[in-house]
Design brief:
- The protein folds into 2 domains: 259 residues, Zn peptidases (Aminopeptidase, 3-Layer(aba) Sandwich); 127 residues, Alpha-Beta Plaits, CATH 3.30.70.360.
- Helix content is 32%, strand content 26%.
- It has 9 helices and 20 strands.
- The chain has a 6-stranded mixed beta sheet. A 4-stranded antiparallel beta sheet has the order 13-15-9-16, covered by helices on one side.
Length: 393
């Protein structure tokens, strides 16, 4: 990483752009705009302002006068740092040690922004790109992309291209798909009252236990759902599979009150071939049977449903990108699909074949404490993009 790249990364990592508070978005977008223009890119900013807060989306263009335009998708919003005192390295200060760059967003996804802009800078310096670029740098990815990539693709800007690259994935494989997600909450109802009179009331926590046990059977059911897309290296299954996890439990307000309600939040991961609406119906039907078996009064509400996606591995562009990554990262880099989700579905939904690559190694602690990016992975991403652009027809 040269001094220009390090300066760029340092300035944007130092800004807390967490998706919960949505702060510092304008400041971060302005820094990104300045560095994109320094690199020689033409920059447009589209603000999808929502709930009274700015949501600047940057579109940085490399016009090579080519027939093919690639859309490169990145994001500058991050997840909250959590307990900052528990970090060994300060989350909002870039620390570079022993070939690693530490800081919230260093890997997910600010390091990838810098890698893309730096690759474009080098291509413009050489005047060597055989494809046009539109680098899409957005907020909102960590919460669904509605005012980010979704806005750029389906909103007034209506950005289009021939191929898509989501630079927000692993350095260990080229992804050609991602999981969908359905999330929500199961609410168990009891009757609130004084804890000294438990016989007179109905404890929602107690009621929830048999229902929780019944939902574990749904975990097993989802595990048997299998995709045609290969799973990432190191996965417990050869192909992508369905997953269901109960992730949060909330009930009660005081030690001497029998709780009248318990809430079980869940995250269900879909294979690319599944329709979220079908899975939502399946969850409703499974819960209804569990209620009948346990006699528990409960209902489910859904918070998020996002379709998974997949592209044809035989697509010419995807094959060319795979070859470029293998040249940059090694000949054994496989093709797989992501266990998580990403913004690639916004591209494939409008017919744009898409692949993913990036610096998000499994041990990078992105979304955790002491997030970091390996500098060698940064170089792999940068060189893969340069190679693709110079070799692609």
């Amino acid at each position: 990483m040269d001094a220009w790249e390090e300066s760029f990364l340092r300035k944007i990592v130092e800004l807390d752009t967490n998706s919960d508070e949505k702060k510092n978005y304008e400041e971060c977008a302005e820094i990104i705009r300045e560095y994109c223009e320094e690199a020689g890119l033409k920059v447009e900013v589209f603000d999808s302002r929502h709930d009274g807060k700015p949501q600047p989306n940057i579109v940085a263009t490399l016009d090579a006068g080519a027939k093919t335009t690639a859309l490169l998708c990145t994001h500058y919003d991050v997840v909250p740092a959590g307990d900052t005192d528990a970090w060994k390295k300060p989350p909002f200060k870039l620390t570079i040690e022993e070939g690693k760059a530490y800081g919230r967003g260093a890997s997910d996804n600010k390091g990838n922004i810098v890698a893309c802009v730096s690759a474009a800078k080098e291509l413009l310096k050489r005047n060597s790109s055989n494809i046009n670029w539109k680098l899409l740098i957005s907020p909102n990815e960590e919460i669904g992309g509605g005012w980010g990539i979704d806005y750029l693709i389906n909103g007034p800007p209506r950005i289009r291209g021939d191929v898509g690259l989501v630079i927000d994935s692993s350095p260990d494989y080229v992804s050609i798909g991602a999981s969908g997600v359905v999330s929500g909450t199961i609410i168990v109802y009891g009757k609130q009252g004084h804890a000294g009179y438990p016989f007179a009331f109905t404890n929602a926590i107690h009621l929830s236990l048999p229902l929780l046990s019944a939902m574990l059977d749904y975990v097993d059911l989802r595990r048997k759902v299998t995709s045609n897309y290969p799973a990432p290296p190191g996965s417990p299954h050869q192909n992508l599979w369905g997953r269901f996890s109960m992730t949060m439990y909330q009930s009660g307000s005081k030690s001497n009150i029998i709780p009248g309600k318990a809430e079980i939040t869940f995250d269900c991961r879909l294979i690319p071939e599944e329709d979220p609406k079908d899975v939502m119906k399946e969850i409703e039907e499974f819960l209804e049977r569990a209620k009948q078996e346990t006699g528990v009064d409960a209902e489910v509400t859904f918070k998020m449903n996002v379709h998974g996606w997949g592209s044809d591995p035989k697509n010419k562009f995807i094959q060319e990108f795979h070859e470029a990554v293998k040249k940059a990262a090694g000949p054994d880099i496989p093709i797989a699909a992501d266990l998580g989700g990403n913004d690639g579905h916004f591209f494939t939904e409008v017919g744009i074949p898409t692949a993913c690559y990036g610096t998000l190694a499994d041990d990078n602690n992105y979304h955790g404490l002491d997030e970091f990016m390996r500098l060698e992975d940064f170089e792999k991403v940068k060189q893969a993009l340069i190679t693709l652009s110079e070799k692609c027809e």
